[in-house]
């Protein structure tokens, strides 16, 4: 599990960022103040900074090997720069060389023992390597900082470290401390929602995930978690709302496909393995009444749940037009979904044969447009 990075002392987390951004960076990287060591000329210090900037650009381009060369060049010019040691530690850690990573992190910590970026990054590395007790100690050291957001980041990282043990109860204590220090730290709410959900404390999980959405943009993982929490809480409206947002914004993801499956189960209809990002346009009675009466259409579904109409249109991207109409019944209104306008029965049969397997499970049938139009007229006041 990644950890929250704390670089510098920026005081606010940008509310619109998603969960991945939360775990990647919360604070802008600031310069690391060195303590002691040999004196370095201003010229060499400037050259080192240029090499570090170039290293960052190379990392952004996905070239860690060249980035490391630049970092080591920076250290040749300025062996007192803790940021350069920290960057070398990161690169070695990412390259699965923990021995070298630890060596450079320890040097960075020696040069800047009170620098939040160094302490936080080394603590994150330790937790990822399984040295959770040592990593937690570093994060709790940071948690004594007077700056609220920095304290919150430290507590959140201590919580992520505790989850690696795993110790969910201790992690929850850290995440609660994080939001007490900074009520806008969305990652802490997300982790609390996960912990509460796993412990079947659904009201608390629901409050936590709602708080997460107040301070962070929805992500597929967060929306699916919210959907599951709403399901267990009996909040059907929230369940469908989160599911429909997943289908709208993240249809191609694994979470989008799972949302389609869950929604389909709830609505009593199957779902495609690959729901469409943009649903087929659903037309209504006006379009149906304008069709030639001697044409044919496919009657896909009749249900009292109007939401099933839009769900099928999104879950099954089909080439022909979909439309639905309301039909009055003694037990309440029913909604009928039809598909396509076909001039001949043979054309309608070919379309029926070409339907996805899941839609065929609904047992669609061919019907004359005139019959559909008569049903609409009977239900019109």
CATH class of the domain at 282-379: Alpha Beta
The assigned structural class equals alpha+beta
Strand content: 5-15%
Could you tell me how far the N terminus lies from the C terminus, measured between alpha carbons in angstroms?
60 Å
Second rung of CATH, namely the architecture of the domain at 282-379: 2-Layer Sandwich
Q: What's the SSE blueprint?
A:
Blueprint: H1 19-24, H2 42-60, H3 64-77, H4 82-94, H5 98-111, H6 116-128, H7 132-142, H8 148-163, H9 168-181, H10 186-198, H11 202-215, H12 220-233, H13 236-249, H14 254-267, E1 282-283, H15 285-289, E2 296-303, H16 307-315, E3 322-327, E4 334-342, H17 345-353, H18 357-360, E5 365-368, H19 369-379
Parallel strand pairs: 1-3
Antiparallel strand pairs: 2-4, 2-5, 3-4
Characterization of this structure:
There is one protein chain. The chain is α+β, with helices and mostly antiparallel strands and 381 residues long. The protein has a domain at 282-379: Sporulation related repeat (Alpha-Beta Plaits), CATH 3.30.70.1070. It has helices spanning 19-24, 42-60, 64-77, 82-94, 98-111, 116-128, 132-142, 148-163, 168-181, 186-198, 202-215, 220-233, 236-249, 254-267, 285-289, 307-315, 345-353, 357-360, 369-379; strands at 282-283, 296-303, 322-327, 334-342, 365-368. It has a 5-stranded mixed beta sheet with strand order 1-3-4-2-5. Helix 4 (82-94) runs parallel beside helix 6. The longest helix is centred in the N-terminal third of the chain and has 19 residues, at 42-60. The protein is elongated, with a radius of gyration of 29 Å.
